[in-house]
Amino acid sequence: MLTAQSGDISLVNRLLKDGADINFCDDFGWTPLMIASAEGHTEVVQELIDRGAKRKCNDKSGRNAADLARLKGHFQIENLIIHADEIKKKKRKKKRLAKLRRGKEKFVTCDICDQLYPKHQLKQHQVSLTHQLAMEKIAQETAEPGFIISMNNIGYKLMKQSGWDGKSGLGSEQHKGRLFPVKSVLKRDRSGIQEGTKKEAKITHFSANDEESIKADSRDYNDSKKQPKTVACKEREIRESLGDL
């Protein structure tokens, strides 16, 4: 009790090591923690709390260590007593981080980019540039080339059975053929299919050896019944008749 009152931290540690009762109460119900709190010895208070001193013991007046520290104006010690559990958690976290920094941190190897990273930093590694580049490379290598050929197609299956990998060019010569089918264009005009610059395709609806298929279609353009005269043609005939007069 006297050592806690004097604030001698080394002597407090030695007495506790020798087996002194950390929660001893005097005739007034005071404990070493209460005395150190009232006297404002922060180090002694912290050491007693770390060693398991009871913080909610009340004296005969019903006041605990935090109350006594507040009455004496030691508000830092009051907060230290009230938030002791939170402070302990922070200290444990700091110790754990310190151990990791001392070389006891566990590293793992990424299956995608083959890089070493701390086990507890998985998310940070996944967003790293090295990992993202490796992911993009794998995506490009495994992407479908877009042959527009169904996997259920018989030809597709036969090519796969013959050793085609489904990605390289079409053809048997070291798979260096076309990567895509020949492009087709929709025919939108009404002209026939041309061969070169002169020949045109002739579409017929006749049967074989039918002479009508080669019969010439002759037209008499002077026949007025077949082709009605236009206004210009009539005017020309009138001028010619007037010229004879």
Question: How would you portray this structure in words?
Answer:
By secondary structure, this protein is mainly alpha-helical. Among the domains are: 2-87, Ankyrin repeat-containing domain (Serine Threonine Protein Phosphatase 5, Tetratricopeptide repeat), CATH 1.25.40.20; 99-160, no CATH class. Helices cover 44% and strands 4% of the residues. The chain has helices spanning 2-6, 9-17, 32-39, 42-50, 65-71, 75-82, 84-104, 122-126, 129-142, 154-161, 231-244; strands spanning 107-109, 116-118, 194-195, 199-200. A two-stranded antiparallel ribbon has the order 1-2. Strands 3-4 form a two-stranded antiparallel ribbon. A hairpin with a 3-residue loop joins strand 3 (194-195) and strand 4 (199-200). The protein is elongated and about 155 Å long. Residues 197-201 have low confidence and may be disordered.
H/E order of the elements?
A: HHHHHHHEEHHHEEH
Low-confidence stretches: 197-201
**Main beta sheet: strand number and arrangement?**
2 strands, antiparallel
Order of strands across the main sheet: 1-2
Mean pLDDT: 77
The CATH topology of the domain at 2-87 is given as Serine Threonine Protein Phosphatase 5, Tetratricopeptide repeat
Strand content: under 5%
CATH top level class name of the domain at 2-87: Mainly Alpha
CATH architecture of the domain at 2-87: Alpha Horseshoe
Oligomer: single chain
Extended strand count? 4
Keywords:
Serine Threonine Protein Phosphatase 5, Tetratricopeptide repeat, 44% helix, 11 helices, mainly alpha, single chain, two-stranded antiparallel ribbon, 245 residues, two-stranded antiparallel sheet
